[in-house]
Give the backbone structure.
Amino acid sequence: MAFLQAVIEHGFLQHALIGGVLASIGCGIVGSYVVVRRIGFLAGGISHSVLGGMGAALYFGVEPLSGAVAAALLSALLIGWVSLRWREHEDTLIGALWAVGMAVGILFISRTPGYNVNLMSYLFGNILMVPERELWVMAAMDLLVVAAVVLFYRPFQAVAFDEEFARLRGVPVTGFYLLLLCMVALTVVLLIQVVGLILVIALLTLPAAIAAQYVHTLGRMMGLATLLGILFTVSGLALSYEPDLPAGATIILVAGLAYLLSTVGRGVWRGRRARLGTQGVRDG
Amino acid sequence: MNGQAVIELDRLGFSYGEAPVLEEVSLRVLAGEFIGVVGPNAGGKSTLLKLILGLLQPATGKIRVFGRAPSRARWEIGYVPQYPTFQRDFPISVEQTVLMGRLARHGLFGRYRREDMRAAERAMERTEVRELAGRQINTLSGGQLQRVLLARALACEPRMLILDEPTANIDQRLECDIFDLLKGFNRSMSILVVSHDIGFISRYVDRVACLNRTLICHKTEAIDGQTISELYGSDVRMVAHQHF
């Protein structure tokens, strides 16, 4: 209740809530692709390489967010190109981009004059400090992602499901795969505002993974994952507020706990149903 | 339409790196034909299919499909991959899977059209999976899934079907069912089927092409122990060796 009161009183909390909702939209939609296509590691590589872009932007006095977008798109295209051409090198490249991106970022940040840089907020997010202008940028990125998915739902589904068959049917698979990875990149940047680049993977995959346990089309998975994302960010924010815990980490723990409970709960329920089923056969 | 070549392979060669996978492969598949390609594992069967579908480029020789380059003709081919080529737990229904055969038919924007839905329904009826339309693919048995993939290929309304080991993962009785279906489809389209089981498919196909790096064709009635041991020569010796 104290949290509700605080939301009404403080603009920064309202911004945080809006930021959480905006991030959840991107994460629900793109996270569903990441989960069904099993490219979580790839998304992790993109998100960590972002630090390089942010560091360079800071050093050269550019807006860090634009550095983040540039680095994310660049590494998405690089990984996508390599994975389509030389699949056997994909893993190595992702690992390299992951570490090299962070190293570059840290070097640039260490050379940036002044002490105004809060490295921790890039790594672990700072949802309480999202300025209004960034909310607009997040909304624009959401709009791009939603528009791409609405226009090209079928080819995206086909590329995620069965790349070879899609290619044989005349779908430009390379283009759509790279577009998909660019959407992953934009979403990662969206989420960095909320939970930071280290924790991004959890918010990208956990809501979609939970949704996949209950619904059976990609579209519904996206919808449910978005709702779950909103639930996790809002409740994480609320839980962290009074004890003054880091919001990003709390959000991730809420999501992780929900995933654990959902998975265990389903296992127990299925086991019981299976037992009841066999009993029914015995009685009959 | 009989007598016209649907696939022409002329002295085809292909290699992954150093080792040649295919050498001097020449073959003409005629319209309306039901042809089987058999051979040992790693004999180049899947590579040959990928070349015909234009997914790989030949190192030497020429391929024509319906008189065109493979990549320009493949939309007229219904392809059934050797299962599984995708994640079985993908959240997708049977109907949506079959509809993939209609992808890109009228552009990539938006939804499927009514004629696409009807073509998918017809395809599901022909392979007897209409009642499974709403089921998730991860709830299907191996035989059911194979019929769904066959329906997806038919939904392309192809001039030719190409199947890669369509019955590798299902039992013998269902295998006969699938080939009975294919025999029926053969009345309206050419069929090329890859198999490792020469004895079984020779009951259904008009002609068998034996592929072990290079290719020898036989009318089905000419297949005997001699042919099989020539084709699988090294394997047979290996088995004999184990008995000593």
About this structure: Chain A has one domain: 2-283. Chain A has twelve helices and no strands. The domain at 2-283 of chain A is CATH 1.10.3470.10 (ABC transporter involved in vitamin B12 uptake, BtuC). The longest helix of chain A spans residues 173-212.
